[in-house]
Amino acid sequence: MVFHATQSSSESHVGTLVGHTATVITPIPVSGVGEIAYVQAGTRYTAPAREQSGVAVGNGQTVKITRIAESQFFVSLVK
Question: What is the pLDDT, as a whole number, of residue 26?
Protein backbone atom coordinates (compact mmCIF):
# COMPACT_ATOMS: atom_id res chain seq x y z
CA MET A 1 0.00 0.00 0.00
CA VAL A 2 2.96 2.36 0.43
CA PHE A 3 3.40 2.67 -3.34
CA HIS A 4 -0.28 2.68 -4.22
CA ALA A 5 -0.52 6.47 -4.38
CA THR A 6 2.67 6.92 -6.38
CA GLN A 7 1.96 4.26 -8.98
CA SER A 8 -0.01 5.45 -11.93
CA SER A 9 -0.35 4.74 -15.59
CA SER A 10 0.06 7.09 -18.52
CA GLU A 11 -2.45 4.92 -20.41
CA SER A 12 -5.41 7.13 -19.48
CA HIS A 13 -3.57 10.24 -20.68
CA VAL A 14 -2.71 8.81 -24.10
CA GLY A 15 -6.26 9.33 -25.35
CA THR A 16 -5.93 13.07 -24.79
CA LEU A 17 -3.10 13.28 -27.36
CA VAL A 18 -5.32 13.07 -30.44
CA GLY A 19 -5.03 16.42 -32.21
CA HIS A 20 -1.64 17.29 -30.70
CA THR A 21 1.50 17.69 -32.75
CA ALA A 22 4.63 15.55 -32.65
CA THR A 23 7.98 15.37 -34.42
CA VAL A 24 9.11 12.41 -36.53
CA ILE A 25 12.40 11.15 -35.08
CA THR A 26 12.68 7.97 -37.18
CA PRO A 27 11.39 8.33 -40.75
CA ILE A 28 8.04 6.70 -41.50
CA PRO A 29 8.35 4.68 -44.74
CA VAL A 30 5.48 4.15 -47.18
CA SER A 31 2.91 1.96 -45.38
CA GLY A 32 5.48 1.37 -42.63
CA VAL A 33 6.28 2.28 -39.06
CA GLY A 34 8.59 5.03 -37.82
CA GLU A 35 8.87 6.82 -34.52
CA ILE A 36 7.57 10.13 -33.18
CA ALA A 37 8.39 12.24 -30.15
CA TYR A 38 5.77 14.29 -28.33
CA VAL A 39 5.60 16.29 -25.13
CA GLN A 40 2.91 15.73 -22.54
CA ALA A 41 2.81 17.56 -19.21
CA GLY A 42 6.38 18.74 -19.70
CA THR A 43 7.78 15.25 -20.32
CA ARG A 44 9.05 14.03 -23.70
CA TYR A 45 7.83 10.62 -24.86
CA THR A 46 8.42 8.53 -27.97
CA ALA A 47 6.08 6.12 -29.72
CA PRO A 48 5.88 3.98 -32.86
CA ALA A 49 3.83 5.70 -35.56
CA ARG A 50 2.27 5.14 -38.98
CA GLU A 51 1.15 7.85 -41.38
CA GLN A 52 -2.66 7.77 -41.60
CA SER A 53 -2.85 7.47 -45.41
CA GLY A 54 0.29 5.34 -45.84
CA VAL A 55 2.63 7.98 -47.30
CA ALA A 56 6.27 8.40 -46.27
CA VAL A 57 7.18 11.12 -43.74
CA GLY A 58 10.76 12.29 -43.32
CA ASN A 59 12.80 12.79 -40.19
CA GLY A 60 12.16 16.11 -38.43
CA GLN A 61 8.71 16.65 -39.96
CA THR A 62 5.86 17.91 -37.78
CA VAL A 63 2.82 15.65 -37.69
CA LYS A 64 -0.57 15.68 -35.99
CA ILE A 65 -1.70 12.66 -33.98
CA THR A 66 -4.97 11.49 -35.54
CA ARG A 67 -5.69 8.32 -33.57
CA ILE A 68 -4.11 5.78 -31.26
CA ALA A 69 -4.64 2.02 -31.50
CA GLU A 70 -3.13 0.08 -28.62
CA SER A 71 0.48 1.31 -28.50
CA GLN A 72 0.69 2.54 -32.11
CA PHE A 73 0.04 6.13 -33.07
CA PHE A 74 -1.40 7.22 -36.41
CA VAL A 75 -0.37 10.63 -37.68
CA SER A 76 -0.85 13.02 -40.59
CA LEU A 77 1.64 15.51 -41.95
CA VAL A 78 1.06 19.11 -40.83
CA LYS A 79 1.03 21.35 -43.90
Answer: 98
